[in-house]
């Protein structure tokens, strides 16, 4: 069996009354074309015309692929040069006051996304956080009651007009009004809800303009329906949707990422023409069909829009056939959510010179393959299973070959892991005892300075890794180059005056991929890129088999870095929950079970680092909150195993070894007890864009361990001054005791250049010295 058996990305359309549609599509383009165009534009090496030409090609390709697959109503209007929430912010005239009165153009979008240098200093960009429980980040609008919603929709309308000219059946897709309000900032949720009537009026005006372009359907996305919404927010749906209902235009309300448990009566009664539900996890469809009025469409999101695995066509038809007999052409088929969260085309893996086993490759289904699977299901319903019998048989046989692949299951290792987990994992001593032992060993000053891990990934570093991967240089030459980079990074940090150093991670292409490449059970695609935010793309590994470690992963690099300096150098690991969340995970084993497998290999690595003399080890968990189920009913179960996996990974560290962890843009208030239960000695978090407001949760909880709130937003090209950093640290001191406060950037520095890094860290170290001097003066006065 060869990789050529992967489902094709094109399909011969057939005549039927079943509508197939999409909720969105990847927008980075082939070979990440939009990423490169954006970054060239920001560097000033290409003009705006070239950027627009690339964007037009990305949209043209998307429409062509939908057409080739036979999709009835392709999504449109979902394209963005950076982020859809930021686009809506400008579309409704809600740029923050600090940016002035901005038009809805690309300069404004990039200013909101990346910040801007103004006459009075740097203008901070919008805060960024995770889009529900995905690894996509959105920009958080800052709503201001003094700024009325004002429609400026030219950019969006031009894109919709472009799509309708190509295919009049195209369906514009917009983030819904209540989801936009819920996810925004700048005011309390209660205050934002009071603006719902005003925003609904603005949406109605927008929908009228879309209707005038000739659109027949518009999709409004309301994924907040999968959350535990307060009663007043649920009650707002009916009046808001009565206001946005537009004559001559049909509305599809889309909910995804979670079931709509308990909301069916509300949704069935809304003035909408269709309801899309995420049915990828089973259930609900029959109950919804029972309650949905006979004139409304039910869109069944049965293909998991976040899963890379080939669909089980037979099982899906088992679910859909009874529904189709009841609903007929009132049943529409779709992926569960936008295909934004998938790579573009698994066919590139089948055609590439790849080390992936054919039995794995033939089971991959990326965005383009999902389009074909959608049409196969429609054909199977319209013409009967015999019409797609060959495709059903091929899909079933492919899954059987994957199940039989060597490495898929290791019963002996599973049994050993189960025995190890019989006891609750914990460090040998409590934090106060550990803190004393660690200070005796590390001898750190007040307000110790450190970084989060990575340093600039220069063109030279990338080209060296690439040359080694291609066999153009041997391993000895590669390792010499990496050691030279590590030595330079250590020297730079010593010269800057940092207290706890890192080796800079020149050998790492990605914080998950680097580890997975050395572990059994992982596989890596050639072109499986997914957008994380803006131009930032990630290539998630695939966990397809049982995870195991054959040898130490990081020890030699850490040992070498520590040999170059008397200052402590942190060992750098990616935590089990983040490796799980930032990978495409097998669908035949629970996420909890896979997390424990990952924790087991990290446990071995922590023990080896400690034995090598490493006195501080950082186990990053930026995706810890991301894994939370959207409904609170599932939180306790998730947090129990997520915390347990982290503690299992770190429990063998001796008392005098300092365990750090790092978390990215998150709201910590409702999970602060679980964060404390991780029992990391030091946690560093991203707080610059929130101006330290994220520390409120730690202060109110009286978080017992040490905290490093970020004082430099490394996602923006702006370098904060010493005074700005000191001001942020003074805010932090209102919430964190001085003897437990660290000074650090928000995140790793791999995406920044050395000139920026030196300037930023120089200011950061100076800010820490200023804080120490102020503390000395306060102490002397108190004495």
TrEMBL record:
Q: Which residues form the Cobalamin-independent methionine synthase MetE C-terminal/archaeal domain?
A: 447-769
This protein's source sits in the domain of life called Bacteria
Q: Write down the EC number.
A: 2.1.1.14
Which Gene3D superfamilies does the protein's record reference? 3.20.20.210
InterPro entries reported in the protein's UniProt record: Cbl-indep_Met_Synth_N, Cobalamin-indep_Met_synthase, Met_Synth_C/arc, UROD/MetE-like_sf
Q: Which residues form the active site?
A: 715 (proton donor)
Give all residue intervals belonging to the Cobalamin-independent methionine synthase MetE N-terminal domain.
Answer: 20-326
Which N-terminal stretch is annotated as signal sequence? none
| Top-rank EC class of the record's enzyme | transferase
- Which terms does the UniProt entry file under GO BP? methionine biosynthetic process; methylation
- Binding residues for Zn(2+) 2: 662
Chain positions recorded as Zn(2+) 1 binding sites? 664, 686, 747
Q: Does the UniProt entry include the keyword Metal-binding? A: yes
Biased region (Basic and acidic residues) positions are 407-435
Methyltransferase is among the record's keywords: yes
Please give one Gene Ontology molecular function term for this protein: zinc ion binding
UniProt-annotated binding residues for 5-methyltetrahydropteroyltri-L-glutamate: 35, 130, 135, 536-537, 582, 626
**Sorted alphabetically, which keywords does the UniProt record give?**
Amino-acid biosynthesis, Metal-binding, Methionine biosynthesis, Methyltransferase, Repeat, Transferase, Zinc
Note down the stretches annotated as region Disordered: 405-435
Q: Which parts of the sequence bind Zn(2+)?
A: 662, 664, 686, 747
Function summary: Catalyzes the transfer of a methyl group from 5-methyltetrahydrofolate to homocysteine resulting in methionine formation.
Family statement: Belongs to the vitamin-B12 independent methionine synthase family.
Name of the protein in question: 5-methyltetrahydropteroyltriglutamate--homocysteine methyltransferase
């Amino acid at each position: 069996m060869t990789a050529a058996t992967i489902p094709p990305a094109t399909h011969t359309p057939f005549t039927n009354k079943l509508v197939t549609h999409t909720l969105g599509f990847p927008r980075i383009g082939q070979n990440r074309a939009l990423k490169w165009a954006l970054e060239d534009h920001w560097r000033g090496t290409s003009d705006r015309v070239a950027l627009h030409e690339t964007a037009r090609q990305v949209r043209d390709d998307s429409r062509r692929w939908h057409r080739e697959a036979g999709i009835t109503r392709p999504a449109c209007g979902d394209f963005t040069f950076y982020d859809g929430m930021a686009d809506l912010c400008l579309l409704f005239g809600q740029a923050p006051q600090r940016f002035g009165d901005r038009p809805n153009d690309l300069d404004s979008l990039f200013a909101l996304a990346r910040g801007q240098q103004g006459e009075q200093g740097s203008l901070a960009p919008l805060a960024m956080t995770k889009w529900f429980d995905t690894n996509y980040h959105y920009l958080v609008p800052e709503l201001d009651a003094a700024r009325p919603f004002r429609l400026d929709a030219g950019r969006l309308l031009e894109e919709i007009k472009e799509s309708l000219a190509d295919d009049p059946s195209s369906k514009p897709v917009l983030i819904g009004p209540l989801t936009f309000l819920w996810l925004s900032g700048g005011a309390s949720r209660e205050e934002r809800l009071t603006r719902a009537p005003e925003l609904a009026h603005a949406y109605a005006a927008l929908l009228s303009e879309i209707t005038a372009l000739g659109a027949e359907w518009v999709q409004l996305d309301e994924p907040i329906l999968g959350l535990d919404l307060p009663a007043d927010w649920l009650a707002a749906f009916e009046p808001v949707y009565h206001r946005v209902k537009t004559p001559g235009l049909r509305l599809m309300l889309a909910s995804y990422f979670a079931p709509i448990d308990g909301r069916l009566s509300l949704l069935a009664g809304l003035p909408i023409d269709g309801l899309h539900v995420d049915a990828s996890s089973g259930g609900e469809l029959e109950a919804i069909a029972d309650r949905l009025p006979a004139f409304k469409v039910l869109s069944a999101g049965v293909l998991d829009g976040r899963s890379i695995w080939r669909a089980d066509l037979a099982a899906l038809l088992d679910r859909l056939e009874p529904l189709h007999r009841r609903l007929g052409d009132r049943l529409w088929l779709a992926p569960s959510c936008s295909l934004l969260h998938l790579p573009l085309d698994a066919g590139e893996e089948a055609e590439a010179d790849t080390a992936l086993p054919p039995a794995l490759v033939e089971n991959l289904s990326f965005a383009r393959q999902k389009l074909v699977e959608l049409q196969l299901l429609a054909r199977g319903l319209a013409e009967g299973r015999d019409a797609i019998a060959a495709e059903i048989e091929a899909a079933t046989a492919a899954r059987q070959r994957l199940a039989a692949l060597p490495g898929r299951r290791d019963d002996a290792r599973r049994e050993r892991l189960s025995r190890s987990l019989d006891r609750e994992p914990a460090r040998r001593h409590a934090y106060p005892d550990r803190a004393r032992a660690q200070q005796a060993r590390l001898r750190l000053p007040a307000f110790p300075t450190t970084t989060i891990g990575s340093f600039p990934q220069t063109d030279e570093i990338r080209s060296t890794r690439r040359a080694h991967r291609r066999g153009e240089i041997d391993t000895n030459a590669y390792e010499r180059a990496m050691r030279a980079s590590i030595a330079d990074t250590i020297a730079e940090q010593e010269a800057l005056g940092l207290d706890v150093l890192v080796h800079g991670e020149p050998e790492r292409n990605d914080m998950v991929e680097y580890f997975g490449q050395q572990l059994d059970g992982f596989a890596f695609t050639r072109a499986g890129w997914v957008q994380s935010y803006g131009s930032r793309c990630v290539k998630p590994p695939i966990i397809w088999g049982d995870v195991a470690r054959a040898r130490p992963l990081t020890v030699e690099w850490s040992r070498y870095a520590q040999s170059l300096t008397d200052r402590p150098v942190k060992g750098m690991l990616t935590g089990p929950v983040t490796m799980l969340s930032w990978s495409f995970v097998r669908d035949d084993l629970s996420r909890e079970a896979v997390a424990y497998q990952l924790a087991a290999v990290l446990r071995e690595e922590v023990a080896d680092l400690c034995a090598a003399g490493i006195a501080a080890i950082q186990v990053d968990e930026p995706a810890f909150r991301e894994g939370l189920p959207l409904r609170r009913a599932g939180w306790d179960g998730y947090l129990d195993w997520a915390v347990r996996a982290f503690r299992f990974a770190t429990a063998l560290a001796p008392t005098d070894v300092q365990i750090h962890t790092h978390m990215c843009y998150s709201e910590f208030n409702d999970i602060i007890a679980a964060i404390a239960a991780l029992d990391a000695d030091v946690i560093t978090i991203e707080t610059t864009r929130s101006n330290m407001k994220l520390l409120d949760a730690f202060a109110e909880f009286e978080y017992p361990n040490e905290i490093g709130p970020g004082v430099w937003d490394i996602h923006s090209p702006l370098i904060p001054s010493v005074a700005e950093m000191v001001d942020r640290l003074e805010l932090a001191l209102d919430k964190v005791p001085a003897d437990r406060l660290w000074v650090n950037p928000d995140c790793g520095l791999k995406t920044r250049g050395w000139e920026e890094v030196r300037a930023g860290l120089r200011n950061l170290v100076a800010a820490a010295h200023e804080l120490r001097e102020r503390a000395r003066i306060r102490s002397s006065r108190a004495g």
